[in-house]
């Protein structure tokens, strides 16, 4: 299940998409994000590390890493000091960007992504939906959860068939905090020694 979530989420972010006439600005931004990052992934003159760094630089404008981190950690986040929060955000961000960029590079270009006409809006929060058809014939529904700040939408979560990508590690994070303390858990994330979430 974990690998399916990673592949589907990465594909949703990075694969070429078929778009109908999109009216909501959040849907338009999702399309622009996909197109821009896909150009980076397909650039044959870049090494894998260069692609990951360029994806990161672009994603920095649209991803709310603090909110992603807080949701991933859950309840223990309240116990983190400001310095511990910054350390975890940096480590989690590097792990997420590397993991999803590599997953996308392995198969995103071969998948078919279609932004669905439905959208859920609640105040300044918007869910934009897409459907992914993988080369193996599997189909996933992906919901991009965003909130509006000014004229821009920030991504704070992605759900693949209802499963949140930022909470797949939550149980492991809580367990690590209990066993190793906050600093020990951060070090485990920084060294990329997490077990694959089930």
Automatic annotation (TrEMBL):
The keyword Nucleotide-binding does not apply. It comes from the Bacteria. Residues 1-20 form the signal peptide. It holds the Pfam family MlaC. Keywords: Signal. PANTHER family: INTERMEMBRANE PHOSPHOLIPID TRANSPORT SYSTEM BINDING PROTEIN MLAC. This is Toluene tolerance protein. It comes from Neisseria elongata subsp. glycolytica ATCC 29315. The gene is ttg2D.
């Amino acid at each position: 299940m974990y690998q399916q979530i990673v592949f589907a989420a990465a594909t949703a972010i990075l694969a070429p998409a078929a778009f109908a006439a999109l009216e909501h600005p959040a849907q338009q931004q999702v399309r622009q994000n996909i197109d821009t990052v896909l150009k980076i992934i397909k650039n044959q003159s870049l090494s894998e590390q260069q692609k990951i760094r360029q994806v990161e630089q672009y994603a920095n404008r649209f991803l709310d890493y603090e909110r992603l981190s807080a949701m991933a950690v859950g309840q223990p986040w309240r116990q983190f000091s400001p310095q511990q929060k910054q350390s975890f955000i940096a480590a989690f961000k590097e792990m997420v960007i590397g993991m999803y960029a590599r997953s996308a590079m392995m198969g995103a270009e071969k998948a078919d992504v279609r932004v669905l006409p439905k959208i859920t809006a609640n105040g300044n929060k918007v869910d934009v939906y897409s459907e992914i058809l993988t080369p193996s014939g599997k189909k996933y529904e992906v919901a991009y959860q965003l909130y509006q700040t000014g004229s821009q939408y920030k991504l704070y979560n992605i759900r693949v068939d209802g499963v949140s990508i930022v909470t797949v590690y939550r149980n492991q994070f809580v367990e690590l905090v209990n066993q190793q303390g906050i600093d020990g858990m951060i070090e485990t994330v920084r060294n990329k020694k997490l077990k694959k979430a089930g």
